[in-house]
Structures are given as structure tokens and as C-alpha cells.
Amino acid sequence: MSRASTGPDTRRSEVVYARAAGLMPGGVNSPVRAMRSIGRDHPIFVERGEGFELIDVDGHRYVDWVCSWGPLILGHAHPDVVEAVTDAAERGTSYGAPTEGEVELAAEVCDRFASVEMVRMTSSGTEAAMSAVRLARAVTERDAILKFAGAYHGHVDGLLAEAGSGLATAGIPASPGVTTAQAADTTVVPWNELDALEAALAEREFAAILAEPLPANMGLVPPEPGFLERVRELATETGALLVLDEVISGFRVARGGAQELLGVRADLTVMGKVIGGGLPAAAYGGSRAVMSRIAPAGDVYQAGTLSGNPLAVAAGLATLGNLDSEAYRRLKSLTDQLATGLRGAAEGLPVSVVSINGLVTPFFSEEPPSDFAAAGACDLDAYGRFARALLDRGIYPPASQFEAWFVSLAHDEAAIERTCDAAAEAFAEALG
Ligand SMILES: Cc1ncc(COP(=O)(O)O)c(C=O)c1O
Fold it and tell me: Which of 323, 272, 297, 314 is nearest to 104 (CA)?
């Protein structure tokens, strides 16, 4: 087996990074890719992907548990996706005019999500979340938004707010450049804490309660039994729209996303990742009545030059076309095997492995965290050592304790065995 390392045999990655660092902030186009949070001094530059494997510019092969952070539920370069995109490209890459493919994709989305009757496509999950919030504000004629600590909804200014002290606080900007006014419209409460939620709802009228139904941006931290159901009730009781961000969970944890798996219905659903099959596509949707407020049917403006791009639509349709009930059974089985294998590899060590169909997180804590504060209290340095040790052994994990591992249908039992064998050594190295 070829082995990657932080040493001289990633020379080409180092050379490319040296150049990249002078041309792009941090040498990357999205921060987590820099691998700084696991203590590496340069990222691994990718040459290509094949099925469950990534191949870097130095020729090393890795079992890929990132899968582009979620879109690649079929793995890299799936033949159906490649064929669909190639065929679409031959007919033109963008028209700025509607196509039949968009209608087909909208129909597929509405068929999968019981709460969605109409969809609007965007190019990124950030845009889709931003637009859903705008729509919720227009519908409710309210400004404030409630979100949960540790949930990520893209880098929209008003959603880059984080909790200060106290149970529920008006958001403070989480990044320079986010104005106090933008953050002040966002209230952040801890996930899985009903008292804090109820206190926040008693204090302010919200346009939307915005939640990842299966939060996966603090590692995977599912709702405790009854929590999401109560969030749904409270949204209805207080006149807020429930906006469920299924950018990760949608099309992954079940055919109809977390809403199907958990039996909770959103007023607005935000989708991304899998819907574009590895090309830039995302969407938001809801009832016909609410979605009819979007221009040009209604008065809420939202647009995009590349929205519903024909290549992205082709990739999305080809991907969803492979996601039938057998595919979801297999994805669940692979996920269970990976989670069980990682638990075995970490036996006796202070590690807890959380999983749900298509998503896994090994937390460096005795108990699985129930909120962002607990996730933050994990041994992050140990995760960094673990991730580096895995990379050295040809396994490519997310470069952060706060990201989920993405299982794809391209992974197989051999990939899982390879991973768990390496993980046994990596856990020991990280915690030894
Ligand atoms: C739950 C969730 N919502 C929204 C986004 C933003 O999507 P994008 O990166 O496509 O803008 C992400 C990205 O990871 C996400 O995980």
C-alpha cells in the first residue's frame, strides 16, 4: 500500500502549496481544505478521484471519507454522472434560460420531500439558506432568526453569529466583517436544550427557526428524542417558519432526507451537496403558497446567472437516479460497518462513535456530545494526531473533529477493513 506522510514523500503537494499560498489566501479556496486544524503545514493536493479513492499529486492513494464534504454519495467519477455531464456539456454549458432537466429535477425533489411542493435552485447551499431566510422574513413580516449553536448554514453574514454566554443570547459576530446589526438579528441557542429555546422564543418574535435536523457541522450530534418534534411545535405556536437545512442530510440519510427519517415536516427546506452530484447546485423549497412569494411569481427577489445550470442538473439527476431504496439500505449497512469497525478499533480508549445513515463521527470524548459546547470539549489535539496518522496510512479523514465522515456507495467492505485496521493504529498513536 502506498503511504502518504507529512514528510518528504508529499514533495509535490508541498511545492504546489508553496505556490498556492502566494496566490490564494491560505493556499485554498475554502478554509478546512488547508488541514491546519489537524496540525498539518500544507494540504494534500488532489490529482484525481476514482470510486472511494483520492489520488494525490504525489501518486498516493487514499480511502476518501470526505467525498467532497457530501456531494459524492456515489463516489468519485461515477460513470452515470460522468456520462450525463459529458453529454450535457456537448449541448452547451449554460443558457440562462430554462431547460426540461430543471423541471425533472424539481419533480424528483418534490416527490422525495413530502413538505416540498415547489423548488427554486441556486448554485450553493449558502445562497439557498440565505434565500430561505429572506423568504421566511417576507412571509412572517419579522426580522429575527433563531439558529442553534454549532449549526452551519453557509457563510451568510447574519448566520455567522455565535452564542455568547447565557442560555440564549443575541448573536455576536463570529467573523470580522459581519456587522453588529446583522448579527443582532440572529439569536443563537444551544442544540438539544429546550429550556433555552423556550426562553428565547418568549423574548422575541422570530421569522424562522433554522436548524440542521441532523447537525453534522460540529461532528454528528443528532437531536435527542422529542427535541425536533418540540421545535416543530414551538415554531407553529410562535408563528415562526421552521426552516430545516438538509444540505447534508437531504438525499443522504433517507430518500426524503432527515424529515422522512425523523418524521418532522419543515415549512422550508434547504438542500445542497447531493442534489448537484458534485457540481455546484443547491435549492430551497416548501409549500406552493409560501414558494409562490418568490419572483417572478411573487415579490421576493432572488436570482442567479448559473442557477439550474444544465451540467449541475444533469449530475444531480444522474445521482438521484441511483438513489433507490436498495441504495439507501446499502448505505446504511456500510455506515453501520464503518461505525462498528471504528468502535472496535478504539476499544478501551476515550472515543465515542456516532453514526446515522451515510454519516459517522468518531469523537475524542468518552460520551457522545449533545451540543456544541460538548463537541468543543473533545480532545481536538488527539483528533489532529489521529487524522495525521490516518493520512500516513493511506486513509483520508475530514481534517477536523467538527466535520462528519461521509460514506458513499462506492465504499465497500475492503475499504472499511483497510480504514479500521489503520484506525486501530492511529487511535493508539493519537492517545498513546
Ligand atoms: C448544513 C449546511 N448548510 C449549508 C451549507 C453551505 O453550503 P455551500 O458550502 O454549498 O455554500 C453547508 C456546507 O457545508 C452545510 O453543511
Answer: 314
